[in-house]
Amino acid sequence: MLNQIIAVFFIAFFVATSALFFCVALVIWLFTVLFDNRLVLLHLFSSFWASVYLWAMPAWSVRVEGRSTIRMRDRYVFVSNHQSQLDILMAFRLFFPFKWVSKAEVFRIPFIGWNMYLNRYIKLKRGDKKAIAKMFVDCEQALAEGNSLFVFPEGTRSETGSLKPFKSGAFILAKKMSVPIVPVVISGTKDALPKHSLNFHGSQKMSIRVLEPVLPERFAHLSAKDTGDMIRNIIAAEL
User: Fold this and answer.
1) Sign of CA dihedral 115, 209, 95, 200
2) pTM for the predicted model, two decimal places
3) Are 204 and 174 in contact (CB under 8 A)?
4) What residues make up the domain containing 85?
């Protein structure tokens, strides 16, 4: 019962503060959109916004590792395992400018989705060939403009924590645009907020680890599928 009460208060806090934070995000967008082509300042504010919800839950301990392996001015394709909705908040804890590739449904969420539009994050509509083709064009344009991408190549959350097969999209892009791939390992989030649950599950230790970037010359001779298998093996070895 206590866990359910905590969950209700946390959700209420999330909803109430989202409206406030979106207003701040809108002001930042208005004052920076003309000179901040990559919307770095807006994304970093969004990272703070997301981090507030991890900081606000004292029972959650978050550790960030490997941040020094990536450089703010460089572009990457980040690929991560996916266990929980909390993985999104964890990725924001990197405070690194990137564009999310996210399913279209998330863009419909009030305040959160509106902020995603402001940030020019990239929409993916599953099962729609035209929308998928547009997603690839948008991703290529984002990379060409010097942006990084963050992708969950499993496509959906794993209920067991075991890695699902990786879809090839992120690796097609990395090969075509000759961009380093950064494997990211997230752990502990499955226990903190399991799939299909909004309940509080007590004290949890969570971590996000940025592994060494895999440079394009390492996968230039590989197919997109083989590249995905290689990155999947790297992440699996660290889980």
Assistant:
1) positive
2) 0.92
3) no
4) 2-238
